Amino acid sequence: MSSRRLVIIATLLISLVVISACTGPPPIRGWSGFAISKDALYLGAMDGRILGLSQTSRAQNLNFPAQGEWEFTPKVTVRSSGFGCAPAPTTSATYGTPGLTGDLVYVATYEGKVMAITAQTGSLRWVYPRETGEYLGSIVGAPAIAGDTIYVTSSDGKLYAFDTATGDRRWEFATSGRIWATPAVSGDVIYIGNFEGDGYAVSAKDGRLVWNIKAGAAVASVSAGKTGPVLFGLFNNELRAFDPKNGSPLWQFRGNSWFWAPPLVSGDYIYASCLDSYLYAIDAVSGRQLWKYDAKSQINSSPLLYGDRLVVISQSGDACIVDPRNGTELKRIALGVVVQAPPAVSGDMLFVHARTQWVYGVNLKSGEVVWKFNTTPPAR
Amino acid sequence: MNLWNTIVLEPLLNVLLAMAGMLFHNFGLAIIVLTVVIRLAMTPLTNRQTRSSRAMSELQPKIQELQRKYKRDQRKLQEEMSKLYKEAGISPLGCLWPMLIQFPIWIGLYQAIMQAMAANPEDLLNLSQHLYPWGLVQQGVPARQSFLWLNLAQPDSYMVLAVLTGGTMWVQQKMVTPPATDPKQRQMTQMTTMMMPLMFGLFTLQFPSGLALYWVVSNIIGIIIQYISGGWGYLRTPAVQPALVPQKPAEKK
Question: Is the N or C terminus of chain A more exposed, i.e. has fewer CB atoms within 10 Å?
Fold first, then answer.
């Protein structure tokens, strides 16, 4: 083989590898939902900042930040640098919906930090880990708050409990695999599931194991209502129900894809959105399907209650209002944007955080977009 | 892109995940087994490529002679070269097309490994769109990332894989690259033989170690195949074969 040809082939090979590597999947941006308090909306923007928005100011299209609005940029610790085309991460990402209690907004980031931010001003109250060089694993699930404790699951396989006021770590509970599902709190028990297919019930007070089970496959989501079964959405397309008292298996329900988001439990009904594009209504006692509604595109987030109706948003940006009695579509509002983040409902307003980094305020009664806001900061 | 996904990416991705499901959820083992299977399945193509390369290198002295002879008459040179190839029974593209056929499979396997590892939530959500409804595939998701001392979704911090990737690639290239007679060509060949392993070694420091594992295994299988078909090849040959270097006539005293 001539050396010229060798050089051509080598160049081709290197170019292909570099192109394949550098044009790979888009960088992580997160898909935070909203915490709502009266006029205020709190969310993690896709550029890593945490935002406090005023609905009134957004409806008036005032310059951001208007009165009562703020932005907070978490300090990013660069853990490692490398060679090649992929730069070291310089921003954090928020996947879990922020929590809210009293005057504090709680955010858990993919960088492995838990923060409490003052709701009024956006100033940092506390952050965990406290020391540089100490890391929690990446956090994907949302923080769950019960009383004066905030519970966070992590990719390091642990469930952590922190004091909401001070950020002091109260206890931790270790499992054998990564946890990406948001912990479900019901009464004084917390339910978690990991990628090794293990499900756990843990005492909210001291982190003591109540029971554990083999869920059947890796756990994508966990849900628990005030009454009824504990539900594990699995990566083998099943939704499995267990007795909250002792972890005995009750029933299982099969979809055509993953039950990625935690199902909504309402009385004797379970409303489970699935990546196969269907919203399923399931009898909580028997696990029997009552009806299913086709959203025409995968549903990444849990359904929401809107008065006596249900609202789901599909990945293709259709907000669908559904009759919970029979799954009839009452209204479909097409936003025409990709949505992966969970929406939120307050009064007649639906809030949507689109992949385009715009936030939409939609009136569910009229079906109109009342306001929209670009969360990307203007070039300075 | 959808056609590419349907024909190349998704079959490889699902087989990889099904293998992980079969091999006790061990994704590292699944990468090794699938790489070995694909590499073995493509052995005829690899052998053909090697044979063509060798034949071409054996013709080099004659080609150079023709180039010298007809350097002012390009048309004649082309005619004579074609005649030479015909007589030797080889095609100048013979060593290139088996490689071109293999390219989509290697690129597909690379993409499949990256997707199957689903290192972040976006990747995992995206993965759901490419899965077959096979029980084994569903059991293999999400891929378990720990294998030996490695986190397959992260670069190897001990740099063992970087050394292995560069080293095995160098050995494999050395085995199949004939020493050039022309000093200019020799320099370029040496540079290529060094540059590629060095670059891939550096990539390994940045890319997920699952991908580096695939490179190492692929190289090792390549070395074994080469060894079976032709021993250590040019690995044991000195960089410049004295017999091939044009000798100056001895000066008369």
Answer: C
